Amino acid sequence: MNTQYVQGDCIFTRINKSKKQYEYLTDDIDTDVIIIGGGVTGAILGYYFSKNNINCVILEKSRIGHGSTCITTALLQYELDSNAMELNKYTSIENIIKSYNLGIKALDEIQEFVDNHGNSCDFKRVDSFLYTAMKLEKKEMEEEYNIRKDSGLPVEFIDENNNPFLFDVKGGVLAKGGGAVLDPYKFTHHLIDVSCKQGLRAYENTEAIDVKYCANGVTVETVYGYKVKGKIVIAATGYNTALFTKRNFGTKTTTFNIATRPIDNIENIYKNVVIRDNKDPYNYFRTTRDNRLIIGGEDINFIPDIYNEELCNKSYEKLEQRLKSLFPNLNIEIEYRYCGAFASTQDNLGFIGKGPDNSKLWYCLGYGANGILFAVLGGMMLSKLYLGEADKDLSLFKVDRFDN
Ligand SMILES: Cc1cc2nc3c(=O)[nH]c(=O)nc-3n(C[C@H](O)[C@H](O)[C@H](O)COP(=O)(O)OP(=O)(O)OC[C@H]3O[C@@H](n4cnc5c(N)ncnc54)[C@H](O)[C@@H]3O)c2cc1C
User: Fold this and answer.
1) In which domain, by residue range, is 367 found?
2) What is a single Pfam family found in this protein's UniProt entry (predicted)?
3) Same domain for 14 and 47?
4) How far apart are the first and last CA of the chain?
5) CA 62 to ligand 1: nearest atom
């Protein structure tokens, strides 16, 4: 069966004019670092490696930014998919707080990129709000609030007495400046554009079909027979890692997004916050620069052949109803519906670092709902590691921290 990782009419590739096209590989070449995958993760790696004057190449089998990058909601928040007390079954509260702070660091890094290179990706730093509409879950929200407050994170507790939103909130944690939104397709292209000026070479329509490892380095064979020689290879292939390993990195689901047409009268409060509810699976939503609402969630067990129209329509329908119930005062018309593979992990963290039994194979896999922020951390930490400096927090993302 042909596994489909992305399906539907994706907002970000539709609203953006076709971005720059990159050449495909037509020669054998040498480099130091070979990044396989030209999604947002590959682009972020390319940026940090080239910024640190490390020779690097990106190989993308299709078009840059057309994998899960184009269907991501790009709702960035430092908190993780599950609440701290839930995650405490798998990891310590200390590590969870560390992850929250690393998420803030990654948000600051994107802010800095935009400040230095221009905001061509509609980046906006906003607050982040996690809430429940169920009285029974209020205590859970209070616990989450207290954990974050006690660790010094700027948070405010919201309940019926101070709820500024138009929907029902029984308890919620508002994290000041704890989130951001951006256009992931524009961001990916901007990163590669800047990186190429720093020395990165990017090739699209260039599938890596084989990787050979030897004492001196690696050789990647591409689809038309040309080879790339380097010192290490980094897997930035998202949810498809079969070229590198049989290891199963996360639990796959199929997840759904819908985006409305622009809406004139969205209240300003929704333009300055990203929102997630406490359900399982949860719904999350954000606005766009042109005043659309994007809502995501309604995950189902992973179906490799996701062109199951009936099943997909059920999830799209649920998302639409949810949006209409949250915003009964708005004229909601859905323009885009799309879905794709998503993978989560027990501790909600991605995988960053050297392969467990091959020091020339490195990974940067942004599994979990914070994939983009993990990729930023991956770019920072792996480029440092290449220069001989191991980040003390890299161990949180160890590739073999779970049994296969
Ligand atoms: C619906 C949805 C919503 C999400 N929402 C959020 C969110 O709000 N916030 C957030 O931070 N994260 C979110 N995520 C997660 C986030 O989208 C991912 O972490 C991110 O898109 C992964 O980017 P990537 O570059 O790793 O993967 P991809 O964009 O899939 O890129 C991998 C690339 O590798 C290429 N490739 C694969 N094999 C080869 C090969 N052999 N040779 C060459 N190229 C190859 C593919 O063609 C692809 O372009 C969401 C994911 C989904 C699916």
Assistant:
1) 6-71+185-249+348-397
2) DAO
3) yes
4) 23
5) 47
